[in-house]
Each structure stands twice: as structure tokens, then as C-alpha cells.
Amino acid sequence: MNVSTTDLAILVIYLGGVVALGTWVGRRAKSAADYMLGGRDLPWWLILVSIVATETSTVTFLSIPGFAYTRDLTWLQIPIGFVIGRYIIAYMLLPRYFAGNIFTAYEVLRDRFGGATQRAASVLFILTRSLADGLRLFLSAIVLQEMTGIALHWAVTAIGLTTILYTFFGGMRAVVWTDLVQFIVYMLGGGVAFALILHRLPAGWGQLIEIGDAAGRLRVFDLGFDISNPYGLWAGLLGGIFVSFGSHGVDQLMVQRYLGARNLPDARRALGLSGFVVFAQFAFFLLLGVGLFAFYQVFPPAVAFERADRIFAHFIVNEIPTGLLGLLLGAVFAAAMSTLSSSLNSCATSAVNDIYLPLTDRDVSSEGQLRVTRALTVVFGLVQIAVGIAGQWLVASAVSSILGIAGFTIGIVLGIFFLGIFTQRVGQRAALTGLVVGFSGMTVVFFGTSLAWTWFALVGSSATFAVGLAASYVWPRRGEVHAPH
Q: What is the domain-level CATH number for residue 340?
């Protein structure tokens, strides 16, 4: 084992505390609305923190510092687009979500096109989310394995089962409140690491800036235009806007949080301000990466680092003193579980409301919906654990490729939403044609071209919209009326 008994004890206490907190705050979940949306009574500031924590995984926690270590601060151009995209969502899409008593983003598609479009978008979300987050669980477990020495399958299982426990008992209310704790823990962990770097550097902050500037690590803007480079200014601005539009505008993982708000103004406030918090968070972790670069220039490692996303993990294990190491391990777990718990709850909610209820022939009581949702939470949790364990037989490049699938599927669903918002002639058959062709086209783009991932949402939504609109001239919408939910 690479960590002390004290640090492991701190980690175990933290995990037990998270489960206890999630179970306690979710004890009032007696109905489907309570379990899925927190009773539609969540405060805006809690939703804001949950949005940020959910989009911050262990991979982000460790890889963003690694990016600045090996490159510079140009990653910051992307969250500039994120900020702009969220405000467009707040005024273009949120009013549609609050126009009816809905539980998922895809119910809007049913009202506009029909049940088949709703189910297709929901299935696409569930499949890609289960695959992508199962592999995120795998990547998080690799870090835990390196830090503690435990077998990979046990690392996957430990993170997965802990997340299933509090999500099963508490639902959305448990998810958002534990997100708050996990946000505090991983930010505190990053702060402790940064403070230790400044303390260990002989000249402190001044030396960090001097070394970083001399090595070009403080560059923020890249004005070049290369479609294969995701970290150029235009890829960050335009691509970031559409990535945000897809991930925060039409993805159930985030939409479910807005629907839990008390009203539309609260949802808008949470979404809009979350962009600035995310920008500040990325800036901090990038600066932490510059600090790591300066530290290892002064104190070179015995063996050169092979992978950038292992640098921060190496620092945590080898430089953090006993006691504080337990906190940093908790931070790694926190970043992982905040994303995974949201994934389980949103997949179960989408499966019940978009697939199970529309296809059942009988009325299901709120208590019955709650039982099914909880059961599916466990099912999706076990699926993600299985995917996480299977990830060890994939090469790193394959893992990266499969994780990228979620990046372009959000663009396809976004294109369907655009067809519903900006056209009247497009019906269900044309919309589904756009979805199928868009998915096929983006598969070719992703695996067969060098187009940067920041452009996927823009290209995917544009292709889906164009094909769907063109198909409407072959199969025009005729008298399709779908009553609001």
C-alpha cells in the first residue's frame, strides 16, 4: 500500500459520511417527483454548485493540471464559450422546459414530434451516458489503484457501490447535497496541493510565475485557426458555445437540475452563474498545473512522467503529508462520485419517463414509479461498474475514442431540438431521418477525420438539422398534433 492507515481511515470515514448524508437528506423522497426532481423545491445556489460538480469528474480534476503542465493555459478559451452558451440556453430553452409539468428534456420532443423521437433521443442519451460514465469510473479507479495499490476491479466496485447507495436512497435531493460536499472537498484538496507547492518552492509565487512565463506555460490565447486543434480561440468560442448548448441545454444530466428549481428565474440564475464558476475553477486547476511544472523544474522527478494526467496523482501520493493525503484521496473520490451519481439518477429518470411509462398500458402510481426508478438506479449503477471493470481490456486510445462518442451525440440531439424550435414543416419521420443520418455522419467524422472534439456539437447539430429539414420536403408534416404533457 502506498498510503498510511491514517489516510485510508480518513477516506473510509469520508465515504461513510457521504452515504449517511445522502440517505438523510433524501429521506423525504416519498414520491416520484421528490425522488427525480427534489420536489421541485431546490434552491438556486445549490443547483449552481451541483451543475459545476457534475461536470467535474476525476479525469478533469487530474487532467486539467496535466494540460497546463505540458502545454499552457489555452484551455481557458473553451469555458469562455461555455459562459456564452449557458446564457443562450437560459433564454431559448429553459422557458420550454418550464412550460409544462415535465420530468425530462426529451418530453419536449414528444410534444413536438411524437413518442418515437422522444424514445430515440432518450435511448441515445442512456446508452452513451452509461458507456461514457462507466469508462470515467474506470479512469477514476486507475488513479485510486495507483494511489492505494488495491486491485482495479475492487477500486471500480468501491467507487460504484458507494455512489449507488446514496443515490438509491436519496434520489435527486441526495445527489445535489452530496454534490455540494464533494465540490468543497475537491476544491479544498486542490487548494491544499497548491499551497504546498508555493510553500516548497524556494521563492514561492514569484518563482512559479517566473518559471511558468519563461517556459510559455502562461499563454492564454491561441489566435491560429486549425480545425484539428481544439484549443484555438475560434474552436473555444464557437465550439464551446455549441458544446455547452448540447451538454447543458438538451442533456438530461443537466436539464434535470433546472427542473428541480422552484421557478424559471431561479433556474436561469443557477445556469448562468455556473458558467463563471466553471471558468474560475478551470483557471485555478490550470494554474495548479503551472505550479506543478515549476515544482518539478526545481525538484525533478526520479523518472520522467509518461502521461500528463498522472502528474498530479504522482504529486499527491509522493508529496502530500500523512493526514492531508486522505483529504486528497477524498477529493479524487468526490470528483468521481459527483458525476456518477448524477448519471445514475438521470438515466433512471429518463428510462422511466421516456420509455417505461409511455409504453406501459396501465396507470402507474407515484409510489410505483418511485420503486421502478430506484430499481433502475441500481441496474444502471451495476452496468457502469461492469463497463468500468471491462475498461481494463481496452487500450488507452480506445477509451478516449469511446468517451468522445458522448461528445458528438449531444450535437445530434441538439440538432433535433433545433428542428423543433426553428421549423414548422418538419415532422417525426423527417426528424428521425436527421437523427439517423446525423449519427452515421458523425461516426465517420469522429473515427475518420482529424476534426477537433470542440467542433463536434456544431457539426453534428448542423448536419442533423440540414438532413431533417431536407427530409421534410420528402415527408412533410401533415396534421401531427401532440398534446402537451
A: 1.20.1730.10
161 located within any domain: yes
Domain that holds residue 295: 5-394
- The C-alpha atoms of residue 183 and residue 55 are separated, in whole angstroms, by 11
Cβ 104 vs Cβ 347: under 8 Å = no
According to the 3-state scheme, what is the secondary structure of the chain?
CCCCHHHHHHHHHHHHHHHHHHHHHCCCCCCHHHHHHHHHCECHHHHHHHHHHHCCCHHHHHHHHHHHHHCCCHHHHHHHHHHHHHHHHHHHCHHHHCCCCCCCCCHHHHHHCCHHHHHHHHHHHHHHHHHHHHHHHHHHHHHHHHHHCCCHHHHHHHHHHHHHHHHHHHHHHHHHHHHHHHHHHHHHHHHHHHHHHHHHCCCHHHHHHHHHHHCCCCCCCCCCCCCCCCCCHHHHHHHHHHHHHHHHHCCHHHHHHHHCECCHHHHHHHHHHHHHHHHHHHHHHHHHHHHHHHHHHHCCCCCCCCCHHHHHHHHHHHHCCCCHHHHHHHHHHHHHHHHHHHHHHHHHHHHHHHHHHHHCCCCCCHHHHHHHHHHHHHHHHHHHHHHHHHHHHCCHHHHHHHHHHHHHHHHHHHHHHHHHHHCCCECHHHHHHHHHHHHHHHHHHHHHCCCCHHHHHHHHHHHHHHHHHHHCCCCECCCCCCCCC
Q: Any residues with CB less than 8 A from the CB of 212 and at least 6 apart, and which? A: 218, 290, 293, 294
- Number of compact structural domains in the chain: 1
Q: What is the pLDDT of residues 325-345, one digit of tens each?
A: 787 778 877 777 888 888 899
Question: Does some domain include residue 437?
Answer: no
Per-residue pLDDT at 121: 93
Q: Which residues of 391-422 are buried (b: 16+ CB within 10 A; e: fewer)?
A: beeeeeeebeebbebbbbbbbbbbbbbbbbee
Task: List, for residues 71-86, the tens digit of each pLDDT value.
Answer: 999 999 999 999 999 9
CB 456 within 8 A of CB 445: yes
Per the CB < 8 A criterion, the answer to whether 484 and 99 are in contact is yes
pTM score above 0.85: yes
